[in-house]
Design a protein that fits this description.
Number of strands: 11
Order of helices and strands: EEEEEEEEEEHHEH
Structural class: alpha+beta
Strand content: 35-45%
Helix content: 10-25%
Number of helices: 3
């Protein structure tokens, strides 16, 4: 299913030729097929969750993470329970200081969320948009990379597993390494 905004929220605001922001409300099962952008993407989930596939890895992210996807990086997003997502698309020339050439998840900061929401609500003046962009670049440059993202299997299991009459139930203890236990 291709991603299709639902409801009244679908704001795309041109903030400059080098900085755009979009806000989408997506239904359960929506997805953005494998694609890339000419711009760097910073994405934040206002609500819901996403399975992000990037560089052969799949991550499960919730509201407490930001996604950094550099320009030209192939990626796919699946929204199993639906989501509201705000994405910034920024010319790579405006990247924060440091090495931002690889995808990563960043700690969420309340200020980043507030600025992203502000850019999609109402019509901020050009001066206010420019201030938001500069402040976002400053704050993003200070955020820590987080490693608490749930890495998912590289391939998706579709549908139920086939019945296996030879399968026996095991306790957690019987799965631990070492000699078999009688538990």
């Amino acid at each position: 299913m291709d991603a299709a905004p639902i409801g009244a929220v679908d704001a795309v605001e041109e903030t400059s030729a080098m900085f755009t922001v979009s806000r989408d409300v997506l239904g359960p099962g929506s997805q953005f097929e494998r694609h890339s952008h000419q711009e760097d993407q910073v994405a934040w989930l206002v609500s819901g969750s996403v399975e992000l596939e990037v560089l052969g890895e799949r991550w499960h992210l919730r509201r407490d993470h930001l996604m950094w996807i550099p320009a030209g990086t192939m990626h796919e997003m699946v929204f199993p329970e639906g989501a509201e997502i705000i994405s910034l698309y920024v010319d790579p020339l405006l990247r924060p200081e440091g090495d931002w050439a690889t995808p990563r998840t960043l700690e969420s900061d309340p200020l980043v969320g507030a600025l992203m929401l502000h850019l999609t609500e109402g019509v901020p003046t050009p001066r206010r948009r420019a201030l938001c962009r500069r402040l976002l670049a400053e704050v993003l440059g200070d955020l820590a990379v987080v490693r608490d993202v749930v890495a998912l299997p590289a391939t998706r299991v579709r549908g139920p597993l086939p019945p296996d009459s030879s399968r026996t139930l095991r306790t957690v203890v019987s799965w631990r390494p070492g000699p078999p236990s009688s538990a």
